[in-house]
Every structure is written in structure tokens, then in C-alpha cells.
Design goal:
The chain has 393 residues and is an alpha/beta fold. It is built from ten helices and 21 strands. α5 packs across α6 and α7 runs parallel beside α10.
Length: 393
């Protein structure tokens, strides 16, 4: 939908300007003018007392010239000059996609004084790095990042754009998709290239994780996906690789800086990195009480691993959300995953089934978790885990 000003009825009262949530209307010669920032929400049409603004349905486009789009792009997310692990994972997956299509793999990097990361991105597999640097890009905010990356996409026309499904990626991805007039498949767990027409097939959980949906974007470009951290294999670092760094011109006006960062407050307290953990000892409602995690920590400490949790324990307030594994938590791929008192709901399995070895401990021998476990122990975890700790010596 779009909005249109009927000039014969417009009185220049500016009521539409005051009510527009996107500051997308201006007065010119005492007539309302719709700017590019308009989203077609229709608030102005509802508020106009003279019925001088109407919503109209735009004609559907037939698509774009798909042949003019080439290359796989990865958004190289960085924070405080440190490359996020999900960017390395996306470069690994992007390399496979690019090789399947027969095109180049590129990374787009935004920030301030982050040129040193360009060499790392090339070492991780990027053929080109598009580098946008400005003080306004030092910390992520939606508008400037969206404008800079959209301008680059509009200029260089990549056929695939991949972002991590992080807090930043989940904010940035939809904004870029709207600007590019294309689709976005969120939280993908699998990406493949259709051998018949080279489209990307994007697979993600649907209907609460009860089925997997494969989505394609046949008529618009770029094809865009966000991928959850920990799902894809990381790219291998090769210091001997060579590539090209292309500096992007950054032009940001006041209208592109609607949000101003006043301060950055980092949370204090215990932190956990489940995506990098080699050994995870996870607990579910079978623990019976929050103190059960103390026992799991003893086993995790003995093994040099970390504790994790199912969603039910988080919802019960037994442990912080940062420890949650599953569809609405973190996706993990450790060497060993202990599932203690976890029944094995499909939403939890979606986040840990990539573990190399799964050890399930549960009193219920019919628990679904045993169907995917490499080793299953039927018994009371409060007897089994102390026996394991003692056996470890």
C-alpha cells in the first residue's frame, strides 16, 4: 500500500505531519508532500480531517532483472572492533553457496577504524570486502547501517545476502529487505542451492518447530536470510589467501541519524558462551528444583564444560535465559552434550541435535530424548551424576 495526497483537497493544516510516526511528510507551498521514508501505514489518511490523503494499492511488480545480480554477501558483524563468530560461520556457509553458483564471496563490514578486520575476512574466505567506515558507524544503530548497506546493495547488486540472527541481524535484516523490496527468511537452519536454476533454498523451523519449511524467493533480489549462530560450520582461517578491499563512500545526513546513543551500559554478572562450549551439561524440569543445577555445575566443572538449560527451567525462573538451548534459545554444537532430566521436546532438540555425542539421563525410559541420544542412562540423575563424577576421579 502507498499514500497519495489529493492536492485539491489539501489545506496545508499540517495535521498529517504531526501524526506521521516516520516523519515522512513535509509542507511545500502549503501542500503536504509524501517523502521516501513513507511506509504506507495510513495514519495520515486516518487523521486528515479534509480527506485529502488516500491509501492506494500499488501494482505488483513483475520482479527484477535477476541476471544483473551476482555474488554472495555476508554481513560481517563486529562489536568494538571484534568480529562476531556468526560472521565466520556465515563465511564458511557462504563459500559453499558461492562455489555452487560459480560466483564470488564478499563480506560487507561497517564500523570505525575496523580496517584491520578486512584481512581477517579475506583469510576466512572472502574474495572481496566492502568496507564502510565513519564515526557514525562505530556503534550499531538501525538507520545509518541500513542506509550504508542498502546503498552498497543497490550499487553492486549481490544475489544473496546473509546475516546472523543476532540482536543486530534481526533488526537490520528486515529493514534492508523492505528497502530492497525483497523477501527475508529468518532463523534459517539450512541453506542449499537448487541445481536447476541456482536459487537458494532456505530451510527454517515452522509451526513451533513441528515441521521444516523450505522457502525460495524466485522473482526478487537479493535473496536474504538470517542464520542462527552456532548452526553452520566456521570457515577455516588461511593467512595466505588474497583478496580485494573496496572502500565505500559514506554519506549520512541528519535524517539518517534519528537515534543517538547516549551511553552504553554493559550488564554485570555471570556470562556464558554456549556456542563455543565443547562440553555442555544441560538440565530440564526433571531436576525437580533449581538447586539441581549445582550438581550439574559440579559435573561441568569436572569435565571443563559449561551448564545449559531447557526453556522450561528458564520460564520457571531457575536459571537465566542466557543458558537456554533450543529453538528460542541458543543453537549449540558441542563435542559432548549431557541432557539431564530433559524430556526431548522438538523445540529443544532443534538447538542441540548437532552435538557430536549426546548422553541422555532420564528416569522415563520412553522419553523422546533417547531417540536421538548416542548413549542413554535410565535412572535418577541424582544418583547417576554423582556416580559419574566419582568415576571421573
Amino acid at each position: 500500500m502507498a499514500v497519495h495526497v489529493i492536492q485539491e483537497k489539501c489545506k496545508g493544516c499540517s495535521i498529517c505531519i504531526k501524526n506521521c510516526p516516520f516523519e515522512a511528510i513535509a509542507l511545500e507551498d502549503r501542500l503536504a508532500v509524501i517523502k521516501d521514508a513513507c511506509t504506507g501505514c495510513g495514519v495520515c489518511a486516518e487523521k486528515c480531517p479534509f480527506h485529502a490523503i488516500e491509501r492506494i494499492e500499488e501494482k505488483a511488480e513483475k520482479g527484477v532483472d535477476i541476471a544483473s545480480y551476482h555474488g554472495v554477501w555476508v554481513f560481517a558483524e563486529q562489536r568494538e572492533g571484534k568480529l562476531m563468530q556468526v560472521a565466520i560461520e556465515l563465511l564458511g556457509e557462504g563459500r559453499k553457496l558461492a562455489d555452487s553458483i560459480g560466483t564470488e564471496l564478499c563480506a560487507i563490514l561497517c564500523g570505525y577504524q575496523v580496517e584491520g578486520l578486512a584481512a581477517d575476512l579475506i583469510a576466512y574466505g572472502a574474495d572481496k570486502v566492502y568496507l564502510a567506515q565513519a564515526l557514525e558507524l562505530e556503534h550499531y544503530t538501525t538507520d545509518p547501517y541500513t542506509k550504508v548497506i542498502y546503498d552498497a546493495i543497490h550499487t553492486y547488486r549481490p544475489e544473496i545476502v546473509l546475516l546472523g540472527a543476532t540482536h543486530i541481524g534481526r533488526d537490520l535484516g528486515p529493514c534492508l529487505a523492505v528497502k530492497c523490496d525483497t523477501g527475508l527468511t529468518a532463523d534459517c537452519t539450512k541453506l542449499e542451492i537448487d541445481p536447476t536454476d541456482k536459487k537458494i533454498m532456505q530451510t527454517r523451523p515452522a509451526f513451533g518447530g513441528n515441521l521444516m519449511a523450505t522457502i525460495v524467493c524466485p522473482a526478487h533480489r537479493p535473496q536474504m536470510s538470517t542464520v542462527r549462530p552456532g548452526v553452520m560450520e566456521k570457515a577455516v582461517y588461511d593467512a595466505g589467501r588474497s583478496g580485494q578491499t573496496i572502500a565505500l563512500e559514506v554519506e549520512l545526513g541528519k535524517e539518517d541519524m534519528r537515534v543517538k546513543i547516549l551511553d552504553i551500559v554493559k550488564a554485570l554478572g555471570e556470562t556464558v558462551s554456549l556456542t563455543d562450549a565443547k562440553i555442555i551439561v544441560a538440565g530440564g524440569m526433571g531436576l525437580g528444583k533449581p538447586e539441581g543445577f549445582d550438581l550439574l555445575r559440579q559435573l561441568a566443572d569436572k569435565l571443563g564444560g559449561t551448564v545449559a538449560s531447557s526453556r522450561a527451567c528458564v520460564d520457571a525462573g531457575w536459571i537465566d535465559h542466557s543458558y537456554q538451548v533450543g529453538q528460542t534459545g541458543t543453537t549449540v554444537k558441542p563435542q559432548i552434550y549431557f541432557a539431564c532430566g530433559i524430556s526431548g521436546a522438538i523445540q529443544h532438540i532443534a538447538g542441540m541435535q548437532g552435538a557430536e555425542h549426546i548422553v541422555a539421563i532420564n528416569k522415563n525410559e520412553a522419553a523422546p530424548i533417547f531417540e536421538i541420544a548416542d548413549h542413554g542412562i535410565v535412572g535418577d540423575l541424582y544418583q547417576v551424576i554423582p556416580a559419574i563424577i566419582e568415576a571421573l576421579g
